[in-house]
Amino acid sequence: MGTAIVVAALLVSPVQQETDWNAVEVKAEKVAGNVYMLTGRGGNIGVSAGDDGVILVDDQYAPLTDKVKAAVASISDKPIRFLLNTHWHGDHTGGNENLGKGGVVIVAHENVRKRMSVEQFNESFGEKVPAAPKGALPIVTFTDAVTFHMNDDDVRCFHVAPAHTDGDTIVHFQKANVVHMGDTFFNGMYPFIDLSSGGSFEGMIAAADQVLGIVDASTRIIPGHGPVGDKAALAAYRDMLAKVRDRVKPLVAAGKSLEDVKTAKPTQDLDGKWGQGFMKPDVWLGIAYASLKGK
Hints:
The chain is of the alpha/beta class. It has ten helices and 14 strands. It has a seven-stranded mixed β-sheet. Strands 10-11-12-13-14 form a five-stranded mixed β-sheet, with no helix packed on it.
């Protein structure tokens, strides 16, 4: 989706009716080993391709399923066997029903299925998201971790404490030395934290710390949005989050209102680098304020 996306597009919203899907190009980029990243419109897709078949990590929007499948076919002539959703948002799960009808097994943390099963409401942006059809729901769920032993790799998928949402999964392609972080990592930009889905500012920092503990300088890291990164890029993102927390939290503790915090411009020196994506500084501050205040 790139940096020009609107926040509503992270969910399932009218932006889908406004998009010229025919104009969207789904491109494949080799990351490392047998792992690729697909970009188009929505969250970055991870692909593990090998003799045992294909594992997809996320699937963007329903109108793009044929293009996603074509991009996969350009990498591998093997079938897509498994789809892992990193969280429930529509730009990562919109193709679920289409792929499920084709026999792909959908896997996710149990909170992903729970949230997709009923209507959701995002307070930050006043967005209602209807329940997903039954065929779009994950049919295999886990609480802590699950590992796929495929394509000469051990693909470990583990849940982190509430960060972007309460159902986030990190995917570690251990032999390929690649990590897909879903929306716990927005490379080069302020992230969206879905507080209505149990997301947490402190949890985003904790998720970054957890991944930093398992990667090395050679690890390639696929973010939910933005270009492929590495340990240094993730560390810079983590440090930005910590700076925002350390500046906003004392203002919250002092009883400052959100307007007071915005007036203080605690992220002014960071906005030039991190505030040029879809999450603009004032909205970002509002989310940081609400989470750190415990609303």
